[in-house]
Write a structure and sequence with these properties.
Elements: H1 6-30, H2 34-59, H3 63-92, H4 105-116, H5 127-130
């Protein structure tokens, strides 16, 4: 009678994966806003799926195990990227997160970017009192920031002065003409 450890390992991995998937589903149902729900779905759900795929790979042999490992690698590569893209789209769409006493750091940065561009502050807030980064301390966003119609974004017909799309000039700058003569 030979006892193999591999079936027990596969069973434990699949069971642990099912528990993490269940906890991710409970998080999606119970958490207050789209950002925390997405965190539960992407972290716990992806970890659960990875554990289940690892259990499948441990329980099977040959091509099925290789397919499970390949699916595991694809899941590890795409789950964080998808969660980031969806949460960034939600933030750009103006969906506000449920914040505690610490506030929303991205909102503070957006207010400071508006002041630096001469658009003024929303709701009469002072950026020095917000606890946000002061000039020279960073805080600029790499992707051009979040723009909404209510804060003077591109929907007001003016365009984004930080837009570096080739062939487009920032507002207020006249296009240069090549050789007039």
């Amino acid at each position: 009678m030979t006892l193999s450890l591999l079936p027990w390992l596969a069973s434990a991995l699949i069971l642990a994966g099912a528990v993490f998937c269940f906890l991710g589903a409970v998080g999606v149902l119970r958490l207050p806003d789209c950002y925390t729900r997405m965190h539960a779905a992407s972290k716990a759900g992806a970890l659960g799926a990875v554990l289940i795929l690892a259990g499948v790979a441990a329980a099977s042999k040959g091509a099925v195990a290789l397919e499970a490992v390949f699916a595991l690698l694809v899941l590890l590569g795409t789950a964080p990227l998808a969660a980031h893209a969806v949460s960034r789209a939600a933030h750009r769409a103006g969906i506000k997160p449920v914040v505690g006493e610490l506030g929303d750091a991205l909102e503070d940065v957006a207010k400071l970017d508006g002041v630096r561009e001469g658009r003024g502050l929303e709701e009469g807030a002072d950026p020095a009192e917000d606890g946000g980064p002061e000039d020279g301390e960073g805080g600029a966003q790499e992707d051009g920031g979040s723009e909404d119609a209510e804060d003077g974004g591109p929907e007001d017909g003016e365009g984004d002065p930080r837009d570096t799309t080739p062939g487009r000039e920032p507002p207020g700058k006249k296009p240069e003409t090549e050789g007039t003569g």
